[in-house]
Amino acid sequence: MKFIDIGHVAEQSGVRPSALRYYEEVGLISPAARRGLRRQFPVTVLLQLKLVAMGKLAGFPLKEIAGMFGDDGKPNLPRARLRKRADEIDDQLRDPQRPKRLVRLGESGNFEKGTHADRCSSAAKSPGGSTTTPSTARCARSGLPSSP
């Protein structure tokens, strides 16, 4: 098996050596050996680092990304969790202002006064005067759907 030292890993992957040492500390990657004080990694670490970068880009925390590798360092991807995260990203793209509205709602202290659905589920009037159902009503203050 061929090994490359931490400097070459950093150069080829674009990940700083300090980040590589941190990734080692949290269990994302593991050196196979040391030559003097320099860590030696298997060439497969480059694939692992690509998967780490993709996981970070998708919004996964590093601890969860670490769980996506088997004991042998090979990818062991939780396909159901990846599909769920892809659906979450789709939802964010459909309504990019939603996270901001949720933060504003929390900022105003409204989360402490019952659920959002409780506050907004009373029958809402649409512009035409007809009553909408709680599941389709929108809270006038936040613009969030009244049901989760």
Write a structural description:
The chain has 148 residues and is mainly α. The protein folds into two domains: 3-77, Multidrug-efflux Transporter Regulator, Chain: A, Domain 2; 95-122 and 134-148, no CATH class. Helices cover 45% and strands 10% of the residues. The chain is built from seven helices and five strands; from the N terminus they run βααββαααααββ. The strands form two sheets. Strands 1-3-2 form a three-stranded antiparallel β-sheet. A two-stranded antiparallel sheet has the order 4-5. A hairpin with a 5-residue loop joins strand 4 (124-125) and strand 5 (131-132). It is elongated and about 60 Å long. The chain starts with a strand and ends in a 16-residue tail after the last strand. The relative contact order is 0.09. Mean pLDDT is 75; it is low at 121-126 and 129-138.
The share of residues in helices is 40-55%
Strand order across the largest sheet: 1-3-2
Discrete helix count: 7
Which structural class do the helices and strands define? mainly alpha
Show unreliable segments. Answer: 121-126, 129-138
- CA radius of gyration is 23 Å
Strand content: 5-15%
What is the topology?
Layout (H helix, E strand, L loop, with lengths): L2 E3 H8 L3 H9 L7 E3 L2 E5 L2 H13 L4 H5 L12 H16 L3 H10 L8 H5 L3 E2 L5 E2 L16
Q: Could you give a quick summary of the protein structure above?
A:
This protein has helices at residues 6-13, 17-25, 45-57, 62-66, 79-94, 98-107, 116-120, and strands at residues 3-5, 33-35, 38-42, 124-125, 131-132.
